[in-house]
Design goal:
alpha/beta, 2 domains, 8 strands, Spore Coat Polysaccharide Biosynthesis Protein SpsA, Chain A
Length: 302
């Protein structure tokens, strides 16, 4: 059995997917399998992947088709089928450096134990070849992703690449879904794992990221507008963490209030882990919800 699963959720990205595939062909270690999780594509994704399956002999490729449900549901499908010790998601518009699998497996063989959730490494911009979001502290062996998210390491921000023990993914999956909502951030899973485990730090490039105009990062207002329940749930998770920095708590309450207003949730203040702060932030949450509606209405009219 192989040690690592690389899984790639994809939706109508047939034109970009080959770059990811070619990067896997160039890996200096082939101790991995590749899952392609097709989230209901209507282009020729299936035909292309099936052609690779038929001719590829250096690593195994598995194709899974599912109805379109969003990135988090593609994660659910991949996690359900995991059999390897480790797993990492590489998006369909991204690709791995030629030595990424070797770096991951050599590092885990040397340092990995059941004490850790896995490895957290770096993303690099595919266009500039520059690190995204700073480096992890050099004087630490491991780090907790909750601490990173709430800002306890101000020099560390932005996207990072997480390699996760498959058994831990299975413990926190599947992610729930709300009808009609497709933008529930799968980082929810990593944060749930981080409630109990730290990740080993590896300040190495594990993926080249190529942000697309139609990707999640460039469409945040639309995500807030179209998936308010999903965003409310992840803010609830944020607010459940102990000893939150004041600024982070206020910002999260504003977003939580806004998402609940957009979702037309009732009694949401009382369900918040810090109801007093959520109540104080309610006017700002209302204003944010109006701004989100305005931004999406303006975009539709352009």
């Amino acid at each position: 059995m192989k040690t690592l699963t690389v899984f790639t959720p994809t939706y109508n990205r047939a034109s970009l997917l080959e770059r990811c595939y070619r990067s896997l062909q160039r890996q200096t270690s082939k101790d991995f399998v590749w899952f392609v999780v097709d989230d209901g594509s209507t282009d020729n994704t299936e035909a292309i992947v099936q052609s690779w399956i038929q001719k590829e002999n250096s690593f195994e490729i598995f194709y899974f088709y599912k109805e379109n449900g969003g990135l988090h549901t593609a994660y659910n499908t991949a996690i359900e089928h995991l059999e390897t010790e480790l797993a990492v998601c590489i998006d369909s518009d991204d690709y791995m450096p030629d030595n990424a699998v070797s770096l991951i497996l050599d590092f885990w063989k040397k340092h990995g134990t059941n004490k850790y959730a896995g490895i957290t490494g770096l993303d690099f911009d595919a266009k500039t070849n520059q690190n995204i979001g700073g480096f992890y502290p050099d004087n630490q062996t491991s780090i907790n992703l909750i601490d990173v998210m709430v800002g306890r390491y101000p020099s560390v921000y932005g996207d990072k690449k997480h390699v996760v023990r498959s058994e831990l993914y299975k413990q926190v999956a599947p992610m729930g879904s709300f009808e009609g909502e497709k933008n529930f951030n799968p980082h929810y899973l990593h944060l749930k794992i981080s409630e109990h485990y730290d990740f080993l730090i590896m300040n190495k490039n594990l993926v080249y990221v190529d942000y697309q105009k139609t990707g999640m990062t460039n469409n945040m207002y639309w995500q807030y507008y179209s998936s308010p329940n999903s965003f409310a749930e992840i803010r609830l998770l944020y607010l459940s963490f102990p000893d939150l920095p004041f600024r982070f708590k206020v910002r999260s309450c504003i977003h939580y209030d806004s998402s609940c207003i957009l979702a037309k949730r009732k009694g949401f203040i009382s369900k918040c882990p810090c109801p007093a702060t959520a109540w104080i932030c309610l006017p700002l949450g209302f204003l944010l919800s109006r701004w989100i509606i305005y931004q999406n209405t303006r975009k539709e009219n352009i």
